[in-house]
Amino acid sequence: MSKITTELLLERAVPRSTRLRKIETLNLSKLQLKTGDLDPRLFSRLRHLQKLDLSDNLLDKFPNSLTLPDLRVLNCNNNKLEDVTALKQFPLLEELTYENNVYLTLNDDYKVMFLLQNLRLLNGKDITKLANHVRRVNSRKLTSKVTAHWEKFFRDQLPEKHTAEQVKSIKEKFLKSVQTNVVYGPSSLSEFTRWRVKMIAEEFLAYSLGLELNSDTEPEEKMDENEEESTESPREAAEDVAQVVHIYDPLVTVTPSKRKRNHSKSSRGKKRSKSQANTEEEAEDVSAEPLHFLQCHSKGNSREDFKTQLWSCVFEPVLDSGARKDPIVSSSRTVATCGGESVCLIDCETGTVLKKYKVATEEFFSVAWTTLTMVISDSRKKAHNILAAAGRRGIVKLIHVAADFCYGEIKAHKKPIATVCFSPTQETHLFTASYDKRIALWDIGIPDCDYNFKASQLLVLEAASIPLRIALVPTCPEQYLLAGCEGGCFAWNIKLDKGQKSRPFEAIFQFPDDESMTTSHRVDGLAFLNDDVVVSKSSKPGCIYLWSWSRTFDTKGKGCQRTVSAVILAELEWSTTDMSYLTLSTCPAKDYVFCGDEKGSVWMYNLSNYTTAWGSAKGKRSERRISPTQILKWPELRVNGEQPPEILVNNVVSDPAFTYLVVLTSVNITAIWKKS
């Protein structure tokens, strides 16, 4: 009979607890525990355990499925551990000690530094710099050596038309040879080097030859019959980190010529224009490379979920960036993404899911950041980033990310919220655009040290149809708001010194449609490229418009619901699909426009050669459509040996410096590219 029971866990909790799921600190030291005593079914109920002491026991290894998703601190001193690789199941681990385990060596230290991306302290020492070297520099060197070994000795051994038996034989020979011949670093780390070389070689073969990785699959987690389902609480945004599937390893070098294009049924037989065909050929000169392909929004953490749609992503602002004054330094490499029942925070460089928030009955459509100066417990003021997330339920969740705490909610609308955005000048002002054909402006207030806050509605903008995208005018963000809607593009005066709390639109914009102008079209993409140039995508196939805000809209004009012809500066050539809701984004600091398509590709437009001319009072419209500077093609991916289904790019966003490009798809895959 196991030494560990529910009663023992409750008794050894610090402080003592009455429920397993409430335990955050647990002391199981000096109990003569062996590996078989760690029952995964029992431990899986410790959903919020953050600190675990297993020192002074008889453990020789860890079971592979303890399921402690929030574990941050682990003490394994004075045991009989022989292997550390099972610790990879604790991705949030920050502090680890395993001194006086006589079978563990320096090689094991390097293994845990590679496996645990968040690890800061190992046996009491800060290993941040060394760990970064191991994860990046060491891995790049080994990847280069593995690739070179294949190219020199094995590539020509595999015939162009090969059988499964030939592939298997080559794989066995290559893995044996590469572990023997690839040497790097001191001899004291030879075991670690062989371990990493084998891992890299298997990943290389998986991508190059379509072979599946030899990864250990973990049994599906089951809820104990005696454990209640978790219900919503003030901390309902659970910090459970989902199982992340790295479908593509960024450390495997992929040459553009080896990337194969996905040919979906819908694309067959369609003719392409000459300029589009030329652009696709030129796009092979890839200036951005894929880093990570993540499957982190799966319902129930299922690896088989390729149906969850991903909708919105936004980079976290840097707290010390001078209140967003310099856009180039105003965001970090951390991005918030949403889709399905969850919101994820992802480190773009490492591909690590830092945090995950789930609401079982929600489908999230939009996220937005703001920075609030809050009073902390000792009466000092400190800036903190707050994330707002909203979706199908019409409720805005307010999350204090650093504290892992969903501190409140605003019941903003009775119908789904399509998109949200914060004012760049009033940090507590949040706009919510809903399927109820209204855009509301809220003051979310600033929470006190106990997270008490008061939200109030300041304004309601009446739309003639469902608003899909909203954008504040950069030169006057407290006076005008644009919205792309199901029935056209509209503008409102949002100045708060006007008495009217509920307001109709002030203008509707009309755009070219064949030989005439029309206001009646779906606008599912809307963003500013700079202070004046608006980028909008409508239901007209194959076209994205760039137009001038200042030359289109006379701010001194009087009367509501005016019809105004947009002053078109240029048209961007895009896909001929009639698929809706594939939205666009801009990178103003680099003069870039991005838009995904129905084939998994990302169309990128560098407009720096045009913006100066457009800025002049006499700037003329570009006569010809502007072709994309580059089209990033979706690489050939294999998941469980098969290609994902047809891929739509719902959204694509870069950080302000255009270092990373985050691509959200219709098949529950987040792709992260890095500009080379």
Structural write-up:
The protein has 676 residues and is an alpha+beta fold. It has two domains: 6-209, Alpha-Beta Horseshoe (Leucine-rich repeat, LRR (right-handed beta-alpha superhelix)), CATH 3.80.10.10; 289-316 and 332-675, YVTN repeat-like/Quinoprotein amine dehydrogenase (Methylamine Dehydrogenase, Chain H), CATH 2.130.10.10. Helices cover 15% and strands 30% of the residues. It has nine helices and 37 strands. Strands 1-2-3-4-5-6 form a six-stranded mixed sheet, with no helix packed on it. Strands 20, 21, 22, 24, 25 and 29 form a six-stranded mixed sheet that branches. It has a five-stranded mixed sheet with strand order 16-17-18-19-23, with no helix packed on it. It is globular and about 80 Å long. The chain starts with 5 loop residues before the first helix and ends with a strand. Mean pLDDT is 82; it is low at 211-286 and 321-329.
Query: What is the number of E strands?
Result: 37
Helix fraction, binned, reads 10-25%
Number of structural domains:
2
- Straight-line N-to-C gap: 57 Å
What is the global morphology? Answer: globular
| Rg (CA only) | 27 Å
Q: What's the helix count?
A: 9
CATH C-level of the largest domain = Mainly Beta
The CATH topology label of the largest domain is Methylamine Dehydrogenase, Chain H
